[in-house]
Write a structure and sequence with these properties.
The chain is α+β, with helices and mostly antiparallel strands and 333 residues long. Helix content is 27%, strand content 27%. It has 8 helices and 16 strands. A 9-stranded antiparallel sheet has the order 2-3-4-7-8-11-14-15-16. Strands 1-9-10 form a 3-stranded antiparallel sheet, with no helix packed on it. It has a two-stranded antiparallel sheet with strand order 5-6. A hairpin with a 2-residue loop joins strand 3 and strand 4. Helix 3 packs across helix 7 and helix 6 runs antiparallel to helix 7. The radius of gyration is 20 Å and the shape is globular.
Length: 333
């Protein structure tokens, strides 16, 4: 998980205007918005005195009403339940990027694993637990985002039982939508962080690149132990890992990353994957894919992509080691 070094506390959405540090390079005034959205925390800082909290709320509501599988009347829920197959622009964009990352990752990223995620107790259904192989096989027959398409604005699914859970890409997509709104409002310097995923542009209030903390997988669900800090700008960052979202079962601890190949929770040695990419949507999807991919294919995929870098935290005995792509930013303690 990523977080911003300022350690601001989330609350009801509120705007606070701040200025650059004395002697700093930025004379621009900055505003911070803090709050909760999509069942997680939000922190936005941008170079402007204007209160854009209403505009941010409008964007997050539109994204949720389209893509949230937790809202029974959202556009994607209607498609999942086969009650209304009409899509919208948001679903079209997310489906296209999901299919692209699905191809890049050899099928490791696939939002149609939704029935399997529910089956294991990590999705939008409360009925999951410890499924039988027969139940897993039944759900696997419904998986296959490559077999889904949109024709004349209508979703054509692999099977009537195929369901979408775009949670591994929607948060990043929503951040990109907020970033687009800020740019439309003339904002050039901003940092948008929702649930650990981040979009960055320009400089902070001190006229510097943004300082982003990468959490150690030794962190627990309520704390943040620093692994390192990177100084970056004009990019987007996402982290995926199983060290926060897991369940303890009679067969041991299982994480929330479900493999589309065998329908079971990922059991490899990668504890977390952090990706830097041109869009948060892409970073979000690639980070999830890295958690479920074959070990040898992971960095080969990343190194073959333009303007994409990655950091893997890999279990090693009682500790862990770091595997970085060739252009990953300098890491500071």
């Amino acid at each position: 998980m990523l977080k911003i070094i300022s350690h601001l506390t989330a609350a009801a959405v509120a705007a606070v205007t701040v200025t650059g540090c004395s002697g700093g390079k930025s004379a621009e005034r900055y505003t911070s918005l803090e709050g909760n959205v999509w069942h997680t925390t939000m922190h936005i800082t941008y170079g402007s005195e204007r209160d854009l909290s209403e505009e941010v709320t409008d964007v997050t509501k539109r994204v949720e009403e389209s893509l949230s599988p937790f809202l029974p009347d959202s556009r994607i829920s209607r498609i999942n339940h086969n009650s209304d197959m009409a899509t919208d622009g948001y679903i079209e964009q997310v489906l296209a990027e999901s299919q692209r990352v699905n191809r890049l990752s050899g099928g490791a990223f696939d939002p149609t694993v939704a029935p399997l995620v529910n089956l294991w107790g990590f999705g939008y259904s409360d009925e999951g637990g410890e499924p039988s192989q027969e139940q897993i096989d039944s759900c696997l027959s419904l998986v296959g985002i490559a077999d889904c398409r949109i024709e004349d604005g209508m979703m054509i699914k692999k099977s009537p039982g195929t369901q979408f859970n775009f949670s591994a890409i929607t948060k990043g997509f929503g951040i990109d939508c907020i970033a687009g709104m800020l740019r439309d409002e003339g904002v050039k310097n901003y940092m948008i962080e929702i649930g650990g995923e981040v979009a960055l542009s320009g400089v902070n209030s001190r006229g510097e690149k943004w300082h982003i903390q990468i959490d150690s997988p030794a962190s627990d669900a309520s704390g943040h132990e620093r692994l390192s800090v990177i100084e970056v700008t004009d990019c987007c960052i996402a982290t995926s890992g199983n060290y926060r979202n897991y369940r303890d079962t009679s067969h041991g601890r299982i994480g929330h990353t479900i493999s589309p190949s065998d329908g079971k929770p990922y059991t490899g040695n990668v504890l977390s994957a952090t990706v830097i990419a041109p869009s948060t949507m892409t970073a979000d999807a690639l980070a999830t894919a890295l958690m479920a991919m074959d070990a040898e294919a992971r960095m080969s995929m990343i190194e073959g992509l333009d303007n994409v870098e990655a950091l893997l935290v890999v279990a090693d005995g009682d500790g862990f080691r770091l595997v970085k792509s060739s252009g990953f930013p300098e890491m500071k303690q």
